[in-house]
Structure formats: structure tokens, C-alpha cells
Design a protein that fits this description.
Elements lengths: L18 E3 H8 L3 H10 L6 E5 L8 E7 H11 L8
Antiparallel strand pairs: 1-3, 2-3
């Protein structure tokens, strides 16, 4: 962001933590989406958040599960990081 009067850059901290959809999380952790969904069903990583998407032409909005950055770190640590030492 830039100041409208003088043009200097403004550092503005974001008020919320970034969120990621399941397909983006699967790509970051190096697994398929179906594998991530089954892993999430078996493991508890904290509170679940949903984002409502209203698509045109649909009667009802669809719900998409979203994960916070902290939850993505937990998934990565439990799935990918523990397999790095194997040779």
C-alpha cells in the first residue's frame, strides 16, 4: 500500500491469518487431494473452517473447507517432514 498524499510505502499488518483451500494445501505438501482428504478424516488438526462460495446458476451455495497457515504447517510436519530422513 502507498500513501495517497506523499507516495511512501505503508507497512500494514494483515488482521487475519492467510487461509488455503484443500487443493493448494495438497500441492504444498506433495500429495494428492484424495490422500489429503482421507488424512484429514483420520487426524485432528484443530478447528475446521468453511468458506461459502455462491456460484451463479446454483440453488444453494457450496461449502469449501479452508485451512489456516498453522494447520498447513502441522500437516506438512506430520506427513512430509518425518519421511525426509529415510534413504
Amino acid at each position: 500500500m502507498f500513501c495517497e498524499n506523499c507516495g511512501h510505502a505503508i507497512k500494514h499488518p494483515w488482521p487475519v491469518e492467510p487461509i488455503f483451500t484443500l487443493d493448494v494445501t495438497a500441492m504444498m505438501c506433495g500429495m494428492k487431494l484424495s490422500t489429503l482428504r482421507s488424512w484429514l478424516a483420520r487426524n485432528d488438526i484443530g478447528e475446521t473452517y468453511y468458506k461459502l462460495i455462491v456460484a451463479e446458476g446454483r440453488k444453494r451455495p457450496t461449502k469449501h473447507r479452508v485451512l489456516t497457515a498453522g494447520q498447513v504447517k502441522v500437516i506438512y510436519a506430520r506427513t512430509v517432514a518425518k519421511g525426509k530422513g529415510r534413504g
